[in-house]
């Protein structure tokens, strides 16, 4: 059973479709686009907001932590229990992300919106705030190819599966891959810098 599930997961990775605002792109182009967007946030001292519900909230929290630790990019999931319960009680759960983003999102920030179904109202409304404010947007979704989140971002990852476990695990792997490859590039640059410094001293 586990072997079959691993096989299903492999098919889930292979089913992922990458798009930019201009249309379909390759996975290499998607990775480069992600680096470009995160690099801009880093250089412009912006904040990366990463949002999701349920399992996607867990994925958002992990990615947000990696952004802070590995990429040195300020990041937030907006998932403070006091804030979420306040806003959901006063305005409705569909407002828990879009309400704060309406007030704090700035042009040099980034929103990463994660929804397995691509239909969660609070995620869609948050993405709409980012679009309205001209803020860069990365989306991760799955299930129907007609889900509204699928094409909203400057960069979109859509997993063509109808299984929450597969979609969520693929989303987690995609985001972890972005962090892992960023770290690999950083190590290569640091190694090149050390070699260059050593060569200069020898001359």
Describe the structure.
The protein is an alpha/beta fold and 203 residues long. Helix 1 (2-14) packs across helix 7, helix 3 (55-69) packs parallel to helix 7 and helix 5 packs parallel to helix 6. It has helices at residues 2-14, 27-43, 55-69, 81-90, 98-104, 121-133, 164-202; strands spanning 16-20, 23-24, 48-51, 75-76, 110-114, 136-142, 155-159. It has one domain: Rossmann fold (3-Layer(aba) Sandwich). It contains seven helices and seven strands, in the order αββαβαβααβαββα. Helix content is 56%, strand content 15%. The termini are far apart. The mean pLDDT is 93. It is globular, with a radius of gyration of 18 Å. It has a seven-stranded mixed sheet, sandwiched between helices.
Main traits of this protein?
203 residues; alpha/beta; Rossmann fold; globular
Give the ordered list of helices and strands.
HEEHEHEHHEHEEH
CATH architecture: 3-Layer(aba) Sandwich
Spatial arrangement of strands, main beta sheet: 2-1-7-6-5-3-4
CATH class: Alpha Beta
Radius of gyration: 18 Å
Quickly count the domains.
Answer: 1
Strand content: 5-15%
The CATH homologous superfamily name equals Glucose-6-phosphate isomerase like protein, domain 1
Given as residue ranges, the uncertain stretches (5+ residues, pLDDT < 50) are: none
């Amino acid at each position: 059973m586990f072997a079959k599930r691993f096989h299903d997961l492999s098919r889930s990775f292979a089913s992922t479709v990458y798009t930019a605002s201009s249309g379909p792109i390759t996975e290499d182009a998607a990775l480069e686009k992600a680096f470009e967007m995160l690099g801009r946030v880093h250089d412009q001292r912006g904040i990366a907001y990463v949002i999701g519900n349920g399992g996607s909230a867990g994925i958002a929290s992990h990615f947000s932590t990696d952004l802070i630790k590995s990429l040195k990019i300020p990041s937030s999931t907006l998932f403070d229990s006091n804030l979420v319960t306040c806003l959901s009680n006063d305005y409705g759960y569909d407002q828990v992300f879009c309400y704060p983003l309406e007030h704090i999102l700035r042009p040099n920030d980034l929103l990463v919106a994660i929804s397995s179904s691509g239909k969660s109202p609070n995620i869609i409304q948050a993405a709409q705030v980012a679009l309205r404010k001209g803020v860069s947007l990365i989306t991760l979704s799955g299930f129907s190819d007609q889900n509204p989140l699928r094409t909203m971002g400057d960069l979109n990852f859509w997993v063509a599966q109808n299984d929450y476990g597969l979609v969520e695990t693929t989303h987690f792997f995609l985001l972890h891959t972005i962090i892992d490859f960023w770290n690999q590039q950083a190590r290569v640059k640091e190694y090149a810098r050390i070699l260059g410094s050593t060569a200069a001293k020898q001359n």
